[in-house]
Amino acid sequence: MFVTANSAFRPGAALVLSLVALVMAGPPVVADDQAGLVIRSTTRLVQMSVIVQDKQGRPVVDLKKEDFEVLDNGKLRPLTLFVVEAPGIAVQPQSVPHNTFTNQFARTTGARSGYAVIVLDWLNTPWSDQTRARQQVVQMLKRIEQNDRIALYVLDRRLKVINEFSDDRATLLEKIAKLRVDPGVLLDVQTGSVSDASVSMPGGPSSVGPTGPSHPAFDLPKDEEVFQLDQRVQETLQAFQVIADHLATVPGRKILIWVSAGFPLNIDSSDVDVGIRSQGDYATQIGRTIQKLNNADVAVYPVDARGLTLGSSAYDTIWTMKEFASRTGGLAWYNRNDLDVGVRNALDDVRFSYTIGFSPPEEAKYGSHKVRVKVRRAGVTLRYRDGYYLDEPGNSQVQDQRAEVVRAMLSPVDSTAIPITVRAARKQDILMSQMSLDAGGLDLVLEADRWQGKLELQACFEAAAGRRIGSIITQVVEINMRPQTHDAALRNGLAFRVALPIPPDAAALKLLVWDVRSGKIGTLSIPLKMMMSN
Fold it and tell me: Taking all residues of the chain, what is their mean pLDDT, rounded to a whole number?
């Protein structure tokens, strides 16, 4: 049945939907006690990608499972998973039925994913280095190979999607050619100064302040300098977390190519009377960001946009780049002018790797675990993430999760930790949709012969410019189901039907699913203009 959310756009209104578990490829399955379904694997498995190269930097491609050893906090663990992530064959994406939308990515035919995100970080890069960095990325894009799935983002005042994953070289080059520096006040990250800057269309006039591109307009007071640097660090870490969420369900190794001047790990705020965080907090925040990147199997490859660098401030930011690279299994490219080679090397790394998996011991302590990988082959170099975090079931911080939910709704890209597929159609000013959740992406706990848990579903409409229309509408789903219903959900998935009135000027609908127990979040943005009316 369909239940129309007539009160959807009143403040505090709930998302009214049918609490009926639907089988996408079979007859309806009714959830017990009008509850939803939650599925969770009872086996803990740590998966990690390993790059193995010889002395010439070439991938070592003939290793077997028995050639690997993995130590968890110094203790040897048997491998329960071993996959060779080799290049696949490029194929045309399967056609998607009309009015069907998903937050999942099309997959290649090989085991590896081949997905790479290039982030042009203008937030942390002096404007004088941005043009050269862009030109170097253009040179690299001219040499991308078939089956390279590349997304192009810009981090300015916020993360902007320039082009989502594609192997269409012509489109990528066209998009990057049109990139412009956002007019306004840009921070000179070397001196802590600012200048009014604007960049025009190609061939047109351009100006950067009254005194030229390398001379600051004025010096910032110490407290303002520290405050702005603090804001840049927060925005950058948040962008990395958004990208990790975006790639969470893509199989195999993914890479984040961070073209930037970086930021220091510590800020000397001892003589600043402003309400910002202390020096030590950045190490904790960076650690949390790296944890999320590692959980999504995303390796960071920083490429220093400044090229050859001198001075202590440059080394401070390079240290941060090296920290991200080493702890996620990437490689930092710095103090060189051939930025395009650094970007190309990063893409080459995703072409061949090994995925290994092991289960922590039953007595393993919750918290951070250090991992060391060895291979029975002399003269090789290994790159892999340095550990994992074992979270205690049911011990999530709901307050922190709520902040994650808010960020996910505001994110320019979808979070894929919970796979979502929607079949939708317009009936005049009503949006009729069937939202299906991949049951394997959800969490559950078995208590008193019932699978129990909790979901929160959210929806909001957006205008063409991304402005939210009306309130965010919400429905909490309590889980309580019998084992036979659980088995059906494992086979066929879980779906809800919902009908929403479409407000005037609405250009898109954004849906969110939050698994409260695990903290996983999935979002899906649906462009209404692509939807066929019934």
Answer: 75
